[in-house]
Amino acid sequence: MSVKDDDVSVELGPGGRPLKHQLVASALKDSIEQGELKAGDRLEGEVELAQQLAVSRGTVRRALEELAAWGYIRTEKGRGSFVTYEGRPLQESPGWAQALLDLGVATRVELLRLEVINDPVLAIHLGAASSRFLAVDRLRRLDDGTPISLERSRVSSNRRLEELVRDRELAGGSLSQTMVAAGLEVHSGEQWLQASPLDAADAALFQTEPGTVYLHALRVTRDRQGLPVEQVSSILDPAHFSFHVTF
For residues 168 and 166, what is the distance between their CA atoms, to the nearest angstrom? Predict the structure, then answer.
């Protein structure tokens, strides 16, 4: 792995030269994009990287901070830095299933819950016209059985939707297809993200210890009239999901 300044868009320092830590970050970024370092790989420590690249440990540290800001790695205290880049940014808008499939990550889904519920509190919170919702809880696993996400969807119910799920099955096995078939059209939405510890019940589903910090995403979508279509509460294993926002 070599540090080079050709074909790299970086900030220029005194004398018109790229800053050294950005050259290091670009070199590591190239290695990740070219597949030399793959998603989940652990980078060598700061001391080893500094020796390999003939730079100071401080330069390596700043380079790793750049990579983390670009969404290519995550750094865990006491464990090191791990590659999170999987070929292209993970977009949430088409849903986790399609986004993961587009990245070549094979998953399977365990349907934990599928029933129509009455939730007046949620209806008031969302400003829904009815307190009837379709509750769909799904645990997503990798092919080796590792659980990576838990999604709890609450979809504003209507007669057509309830007819479609009467046999406790989703149309085509897809919640998105079921919603489209029921005439539920998404026009706008909002999403929130935070890192929070798992409670005992969710930790058991993820086969980890209670209190382990996972990503928690909350998404609310609405139709053209501003009425709620779906609320999705997702718990995501940070070893497999990351968010990168540009502005």
Answer: 5
Sequence-distant (6+) residues with CB within 8 A of 41 are: 82, 83
140: helix, strand or coil: strand
Torsion of CA 186, 151, 87, 188, to 10 degrees: 20
**Sequence-distant (≥ 6) Cβ neighbours of residue 114 within 8 angstroms:** 134, 135, 136, 137, 165, 168, 169, 170
Cβ atoms of 116 and 131 within 8 Å: the answer is: no
Question: Helix %, strand %, coil % for the chain, to 5?
Answer: 30, 30, 40
Angle of CA points 204, 210, 215, to nearest 5°: 90
Q: Contact at 8 Å (CB) between 84 and 74?
A: yes
State how far the Cα of 100 lies from the Cα of 184, in Å rounded to an integer: 24
- Mean pLDDT value across residues 35-40: 80
What b/e string do you get for 113-145 counting C-beta neighbours within 10 Å, with b at 16 or more?
ebeeeeeeebbeebebeeebbbbbbbbbeeeee
Q: What is the pLDDT of residues 114-169, one digit of tens each?
A: 999 999 999 999 999 999 999 999 999 988 899 999 999 999 999 999 999 998 88
3-state secondary structure 104-127: CCCEEEEEEEEEEEECHHHHHHHC
CB within 8 Å of 196: residues ≥ 6 apart: 213, 214, 216
Q: Which of 75, 72, 51, 62 is nearest to 20 (CA)?
A: 62
Which amino acid is it at 1? M
